[in-house]
Design brief:
0% strand; rod-shaped; mainly alpha
């Protein structure tokens, strides 16, 4: 039996390598998005702590105006930082989405090449079966012909 050689194996190899690279890009982008999301979550926690501190400062018997003003300033700064970080998170989400679309396309292209390879292999197997059947017919015909000559 002959060895199966897929003519476009190099293309399939390139598609597999490209898919692997895009997967690595996607993982890195997703990791960075998670890191930025953690920073945003930390900012929200800090703001909640400032709000609790503000409530405690206002409920004290002796009000300290400077501490209350400092707390209000810190809370306002956290709002600015949260808005800024939300933009950063949104930008990273868009990057992750673009890479995800590229990855989906790369997976589809690789699968398409694999389907073509499988079809080519099925055709190869069918051709081999036909060739084997043809050889068997020739052997049988030859053997039958030899027997006919011997009996005559």
């Amino acid at each position: 039996m002959a060895k199966f050689v897929y003519r476009m194996q190099s293309i399939l190899n390139i598609k597999q390598k490209t898919e692997g690279q895009i997967k690595m890009e996607y993982a890195a982008a997703q990791s960075e998005l998670n890191r930025q999301q953690d920073i945003l979550d930390d900012y929200f926690r800090r703001k909640d702590n400032y709000l609790l501190e503000a409530e405690n400062l206002r409920n004290e018997e002796k009000l300290n105006l400077q501490d209350i003003l400092d707390n209000q300033y810190a809370t306002a700064q956290m709002d600015v930082m949260i808005a800024s970080q939300a933009q950063v998170v949104k930008m990273h989400e868009e990057i992750v989405e673009k890479i995800r679309v590229r990855l989906t396309r790369a997976i589809q292209e690789r699968k398409m090449q694999e389907i073509l390879r499988d079809r080519a292999f099925a055709e190869f197997i069918e051709e081999e079966k036909q060739e084997e059947a043809k050889e068997n017919d020739q052997r049988i015909s030859y053997t039958y012909g030899q027997r006919q000559r011997v009996t005559n």
